[in-house]
Amino acid sequence: FCFLLFCLIAAQYFRGGFHKLRIGWILHPHLNLLMHGAWAMGWARFLPAESWARLIQMVSAANVPLMLFALIVEAGAILALWRRRWLPWFLFGWMTLHGGIFLYSGFFFWKWMGLELILLLTLFWRKQPVELPIFSRPYFLFSLLLISLGRILFGAPNLSWFDTPLAYDYEFEVVGASGAVYDLPPSQLSYYNDGFVLGIFDQLTAEPQLTNAYAVTNDPQMAADLIAAHSVADILTLEAQFPASTYDEARVAAMDDFLRRYLGHWNEPAAPTLLLCQIPSPPHLWSFAEHTVFSEQEPAARVDIYQTVSFYYDGEIRPVRRTLIHSVAIP
């Protein structure tokens, strides 16, 4: 069991590290730009944009060392079972990686961190560590096979991309019956909050979108072009060169139906809930609102959806545009 568990864990890291090596991720040393993408998606919004932009600029000097560390603990995961003394260091390295990811982006892999901490403390952090008969050449060779086939055997994701300075976000605002406007952050959309943090709603607008959630892309040429941009005018020029839209009327209708149902239920009298149901687990994706959050202060009359585009350059987060792209009346 322990052998398969360690192979499963290592496979989750190895596939991302392997593909980072394959695409030449280290040759695009702009890891700090992930912080801008995360801020656009709602992470650390309790800080002013100017303060966060200064942090982005300050940590840029650590880009290459941090990327090398990530490659070592991810791509190197395939060697985690080579020696008994190696595995505890990998477990510690993976927890450290997750801690850094949380600080940079608000991605909180608390389940993985908890599992790795339990394994580290119960199996290795003892006066007499538990003896495991899995650190031998046959087991190691078998682990190479299992870890390298992680996508097929364990569903390991391909977490590789290029960070860019251009972020697209979709902000939801509730207009109450009185006309007051409230933020509708993902935290208010329980069970669906991760999807709303990621903000993958380009199907709602005909406006171009050059990057994915968190300002990342898998297109190396697009990443290079965005890094070379020095002004909002450069961004608009690039958008004009790639006007392709993913607008989808069926997806728009599905969003309308979801918001009407979800917020329509809020307009109805609420049934009492158990106290335990009101205690949530730690969120996987953290985000914060900048303004007053809608929490049923009054009936919701309408939801307005805005596409917000921002561009980071030379220590400054620059707004590109904020466009009302869709409105939904709430019954």
Any low-confidence stretches, pLDDT <50, length ≥5? none
Question: What average pLDDT do the residues reach?
Answer: 91
How large is the count of helical segments? Answer: 12
The proportion of strand residues reads 5-15%
Structural class estimated from helices and strands: alpha+beta
Approximate shape: globular
Distance between the termini: 53 Å
Q: Count all strands and give the number.
A: 6
Domains, number: 2
What does this structure look like?
By secondary structure, the chain is of the alpha+beta class. It folds into two domains: about 1-155, no CATH class; about 165-330, no CATH class. The protein contains twelve helices and six strands. The protein has helices at about 1-25, 35-40, 50-60, 65-75, 85-105, 110-125, 135-150, 150-155, 195-200, 220-230, 230-240, 250-265; strands at about 160-165, 165-175, 180-185, 215, 300-315, 315-330. Strand 2 and strand 3 form a beta hairpin. Helix 1 (about 1-25) packs across helix 4 and helix 5 (about 85-105) packs antiparallel against helix 6. The chain is globular and about 70 Å long.
Task: Write out key terms for the chains shown.
single chain; 331 residues; alpha+beta; 2 domains; four-stranded antiparallel β-sheet; two-stranded antiparallel sheet; 12 helices
